[in-house]
Design a protein that fits this description.
The chain has a single domain (2-290), classed as Rossmann fold (3-Layer(aba) Sandwich), CATH 3.40.50. 32% of the residues lie in helices and 19% in strands. The chain has helices spanning 8-15, 18-25, 29-34, 59-74, 79-86, 107-119, 138-141, 179-182, 235-254, 265-272; strands spanning 2-4, 40-46, 93-96, 127-130, 145-155, 159-161, 198-209, 228-232, 284-290. Strands 1, 2, 3, 4, 5, 6, 7, 8 and 9 form a 9-stranded mixed β-sheet that branches. Helix 2 runs parallel beside helix 10 (265-272) and helix 4 (59-74) packs across helix 6. It is globular, with a radius of gyration of 18 Å.
Length: 297
């Protein structure tokens, strides 16, 4: 496994946004003194054979990718043992997916996750997979464990649609979180229905969307076969890493630095304002597994 940590200067170059960098790195002396050398682990796994010629997901390859990622995340050899550390037989498990029609969570990935949850001893009746209607779902309302999974894409209101934003359907009035480019989406993770329950986060970067203009935008021209998954326990670290990949792709495609608009400030404020996770790439242990061509990070 190859490990990589981006320097602060490289990160600032990648984001190309002084305001964004300021939100990330402006800390008090007390905060700096309290920091430790411990880093947050993020697994980036890619497989050049995960998609067929029509960009359909090969489920058997996806299963292997997920098993490899989870064992690497937890430093274990057996996928079954790894999942049993994440999920217990008496858990009630909500798998929070995303059904945006242009770039949904692959159904194959939902099946792979459900299979491993059941392998950990959870009966099917105590598992629910859905995006909408969470507040009317008894499994989600009584969940003891959540698994959060969604594709990475640019977003008109928040800069990026990613793991932090995926919990927006836990509220009945999501527009309450749209102020200031959705700056405080981390508050969703403090809701009683969600707080402290997320055992695993999976940011799908199989065919990410790196550019768009306007609400609900989508253009296949602005997706690409990156063929990867980002897997970890910290949604902020995963989203921060996803932003870096999108920015690198935008630089490659446009042949210039072109910041996301609006800037994805909610990702970095989740760290600096809400203390939810780790956004600083210097504090992320990025473990790269598998296919390395055009990895961008």
């Amino acid at each position: 496994m190859e490990k990589d940590v981006l320097t602060r200067r490289e990160f600032l170059k990648t984001t190309s946004s002084a305001a964004l960098a300021g939100a990330l790195f402006l800390k008090s002396p007390e905060d700096l003194l309290a920091e430790t050398d411990k880093k947050t682990r993020v697994i980036l796994i890619r497989d050049k054979d995960i998609l067929d010629d029509d960009n359909n997901v090969k489920e058997e390859v996806l299963q292997e990718m997920m098993d490899t990622a989870v064992t690497a995340l937890l430093d274990l050899d057996d996928p079954a043992d790894a999942w049993k550390q994440l999920i217990k037989p008496d858990d009630v498990v909500g798998i929070k997916t995303n059904n945006w029609p242009y770039l949904p969570t692959p159904a194959a990935l939902n099946r792979v996750i459900e299979k491993r949850v059941m392998d950990a001893g959870v009966p099917e009746k105590k598992i629910s997979i859905r995006d909408q209607g969470l507040l009317g779902d008894d499994v989600f309302l009584n969940a003891t464990a959540l698994i959060n999974v969604r594709p990475l894409r640019t977003h008109h209101w928040s800069g990026v649609g990613s793991l932090l934003k995926n919990y927006i359907t836990f509220v009945s009035e999501p527009w309450d979180y749209h102020d200031d480019s959705c700056a405080d989406l981390a508050k969703l993770w403090r809701l009683p229905v969600a707080e402290g329950k997320t055992r695993l986060n999976i940011l799908v970067v199989l065919t990410p969307l790196f550019h768009g203009i306007g609400p609900h935008h989508f253009s296949a021209e602005h997706t690409w076969a990156y063929k990867g998954l980002l897997v970890g326990t910290d949604p902020v670290a995963l989203d921060s890493t996803g932003v870096r990949i999108l920015m690198a792709k935008r630089r490659e495609y446009f042949e210039e630095d072109r910041p996301l608009s609006p800037p994805p400030k909610h990702v970095f404020l989740a760290d600096t304002r809400h203390s939810l996770g780790t956004a600083d790439p210097n504090k992320i242990d990025l473990v790269k597994i598998g296919w390395k061509d055009d990895i961008l990070i």
